[in-house]
Amino acid sequence: MNEKIKFARQFIQALPHAVSLGMKLEELEEGIAVISMPYDEKLIGDPETGVVHGGAVSALMDTCCGAAVMSHPSNPAGTATIDLRIEYLRAATPGQTITTRAHCYHVTRSVAFVRATAVDEDSDNPVASATGTFTVEDKG
Amino acid sequence: MSKRPRPEPVQVVKQRRDAVLNALVTGVPYIQFLGVEFERRGDELTTVMPFKDALIGNPLLPALHGGATAAFLEVTAIITLSWTSIWEDMESGVLDVSDPDNVVLPRLPKTIDFTVDYLRSGLPRDAYARAQIVRSGRRYASVRVEAWQDNRSRPYAAATGHFVMPKKPA
Predict the structure, then answer these.
(1) Would you say residue A140 lies in a domain?
(2) B114 pairs with which residues across the strands?
(3) Shortest CA distance to A48 belongs to which of B106, B161, B76, B21?
(4) How close A1 comes to chain B (CA, Å)?
C-alpha cells in the first residue's frame, strides 16, 4: 500500500462525524472507495417504518466520495465538497447495513468529479445514487 | 351583523403550535442524534445545529463534516415542509391536539433528490438554517434551504430538494 493511500485511510477512519455514525472503510484504492454504515436506531428518519434518515445516507455518500478523491493519484492530499447531489431511489430496508461505493472518475487541476451508489443487502437494487464535485488542492 | 369571534388566548395558541412542532420533531431519532433544535416565530421556523465534536469532518482545520451539514439542511427542509403542510389543519382544529403527547401527524415527506452547495467551510460553531418552500403541490414539493453561521448574509451552505408529499386521507 502506498503512503498516500495509507494516509488517506488513517484520515478517513479518524473523521469524528464518520466515526459517530459507525462508518467503516472497507476498500480504498486509486480513486475508488467503499464505506459501510451498519443499521442503528439513532439513524432512523421515519419513526413509523424505521427507515434510515436521508441525511445519514448523505453523510455516508459525502464521506465516501471525499475518500475516493483523496485516494486518486492526481490529487495531492485533502479535499472539500463543492457540491453533492443525491437521488433517493428507494427506502433502505430497516436493519440492513448500507454500503457505498464511490468512483472519482475525472480530476482536473482544480476539480475532482465523483459518482457513487449506495446499496443495502439487496445489492442489485441501489437505494441511492450521488454525483459530486470536490476541490483539488493547489500544488503551488 | 355577526361579530368577529373572540381571538383565542395567546397561551392556547402557543401551546397548540409548540405541541405539534414538538410531536413532529421528537419522534425522529436522527434529529436527536444530530442535536438539531427548532425555534418558532409564528409559522416561521429556524433550525439550530449547536456545535459538538461529533459533527467534525476534518479534525485538522477543524471544519464541520459536509455530511452533517447536508443532513442539517435536509432535516430543515423536511420539517419545514411538513410543518407548513399541517399548519392549516392545526389552526382550524382538523388536527386533534387535545392530547399533546399523542398527536397523530401525517407521514413525513419523502426526499426524491437533494443537492447541496458548499459555499464556505463550516466553522466549529453553531449553524442556523431556514427553508423556503418554492412550490408545494398535492404530490410533489420543491424546497430551498440556506444555512449560515455568524452572518445571515453569508450562507455557508445552500440546498435544493424535491419531495413526495404524504397522501392525504380521502
Answers:
(1) no
(2) A86, B161
(3) B106
(4) 23
pLDDT class for A49, splitting at 50, 70, 90? very high
Dist. CA B80–CA B97, nearest whole Å: 19
Give chain A's domain count: 1
In a domain, A95, yes or no: yes
Residue A104 covered by a domain: yes
Check residue B74 and give its pLDDT: 98
The pLDDT of residue A74: 86
Put simply, the chain A residues between 77 and 96 with a CB less than 8 A from any chain B CB are 78, 80-88, 91
What is the nearest CA distance from A68 to chain B, expressed in angstroms? 15
Contacts of B117 in chain A (CB under 8 A): 82-83
Closest CB to B67 among A47, A59, A85 = A59
- Which of A3, A21, A139, A140 lies closest to A71, judged by CA? A3
**A121 part of a folded domain:** yes
pLDDT digits (tens, 9 = 90+) for B66-114: 999 999 999 999 999 999 999 999 999 899 888 878 888 999 999 999 9
Domains, in order of start, for chain B: 10-164 (3.10.129.10)
Domain span at residue A125? 3-135
Mutate to test the interface with A, among B22, B31, B65 (most CBs of A within 10 A): B65
Whether residue A126 contacts residue A88, with contact meaning beta carbons closer than 8 Å, is answered with no
Tell me which amino acid residue B11 is: Q
Which CATH number goes with the domain that contains A131?
Answer: 3.10.129.10
What ipTM describes this predicted complex?
Answer: 0.92
- The answer to whether B118 faces chain A, any CB pair under 8 Å, is yes
